[in-house]
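Format notes (please read before filing issues)

Several people have asked whether sequences and structure tokens are stored in separate files. They are not. Every record keeps both together, in the order shown below: the sequence lines, then the token lines. Line labels are part of the format and must not be stripped during preprocessing.
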Amino acid sequence: MSIRESAGVKELHQSYSDPPVEQHPDEAVGPVGPQEPPLGVRALKAGVHTVVALCLVTALVHIVLVFLHVAPSNPVSRRYSSQVNAWVYPLFEQNWRLFAPDPDSFNRQILARTAYTDSKGSVRVSPWLDLAAVDNAAVDHDVFPSHTSQNLLRRAWTSYVETHGGSDTARSERAVMLQQYLRNIAADRVAARNAGVTFDFIQLRVVTVPVPAPGTATGNRPPTPTETRLLPWWKVTSHGK
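Then the structure lines:
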């Protein structure tokens, strides 16, 4: 057998042993790069990033406005006082001041009485109930006194005075809200002490006594001035008939 015939036999044997390879001349051969995520995934990521950015901006604005609210009076807080108050009140109200502590220097006796109309048309008025004494009794000898018993009624009254001053006429929406807040707290306290008793009106009387400065001798103290304030009768709906 000649050399040419031997090469032909080898080529024929190779053609039967190897599978045919399909050629696609239009396909480009090269390294495969990273594929872009679907449109829905990209939109979701963009939405998450937007929400996170908005939360961060809102948190920063909140911190700045609350800081201006509790900081001592300054040109910035005075210039933007309306914007600061609109953001802080009523949900983010703060009862403390930065760098200027203002401890309560008064003892207050907050009393309440109620009234209702009986079946004969006569108005019945209850005796005075000392709500502050009830709170003090709940705090005394309690290792972990309730924050509500300590501050709820007191803060409601001081907020009422801040918005009303010496008048009992509400001149703003915030004043109306705090008046209703004080009324509802007092009505709830009276109803809790007198279960089953209904009433249509409630009235408060507040006796304020300044606390003497520490270190003052008892004999040298001047007579302590006492302020008594009688509030008008308020209509009560939740504890009425």
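For reference, the curators noted about this record: DSSP finds seven helices and six strands in the chain. Strands lie at 106-117, 123-125, 129-130, 201-210, 227-230, 234-235.
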